[in-house]
Each structure stands twice: as structure tokens, then as C-alpha cells.
Amino acid sequence: MSSTEQQQAPAEGFAIVLTEKAADEVRKFIAAEKVSAETAGLRVSVLPGGCSGFKYSLNIEEAPLQDDMVMPLSGIRLFVDGFSAQYLSGVTIDYVSSMQGSGFTFSNPNATGGCGCGSSFTA
Predict the structure, then answer these.
(1) Is CATH 1.10.10.350 correct for 17-122?
(2) Which tens digit of pLDDT belongs to each residue from 73-97?
(3) Which pTM does this prediction carry?
């Protein structure tokens, strides 16, 4: 890490839960991306958009950005930016497989509403 990088520890009381099934899937994605497991991680973010106002985004990244919070969970590093952090505390990320398809799901106690598609929320 260079001297200009200043990753932050999560704020007191900030927590994200990554289920073991979700962690297993993230490990598969990290391996498929062929990035260094020592520096790479899962970016969890909230972006403006979706039919309810905000949408979740998950990306595998080679390293955290300068002002990211870095959280080790289940052997995976989570990267969270300051804007997203205000909407993500208490969120549980899971991975589900069903006849309708497979994917990551978010259980967000901060959401005050959602949409029928389940991919966006209001807070």
C-alpha cells in the first residue's frame, strides 16, 4: 500500500453480513477473474437508479480505492465507499439458487420500500 492510500476501517457499529453461500460464490468469481486474492475484494455499493431510487452493485476489484472502508469477512475483503456505507449498514448479502434463476440477494433493514423486481430500493 502506498503512502497516499488511506483505506479506512469500518465505522463503529457498521456491519454487513455475507452468508457462507454468498462468500463461496464470491470466491469463485475472484478465482475466475484471476486477480490477487491478497489485494482483491468485493466492492459492495449503492448507486442512484433503479425503479425505486437506489440499486445495489457488486463487482470484483483488484484493490480498494483510496477512501474505501475495507472489511474482511469470511476470508474476503469487502470494499465500501462512503456514500454507499450510509445505506449498507446491517445489510445481509446471500446467494440463492432456484428454478427461476440464481443470484445475490440483499436484505436491507434501512430500506423503506422496494420494487417488484427486487433489485432496487428506497431509503
Answers:
(1) no
(2) 989 999 999 999 988 989 999 999 8
(3) 0.80
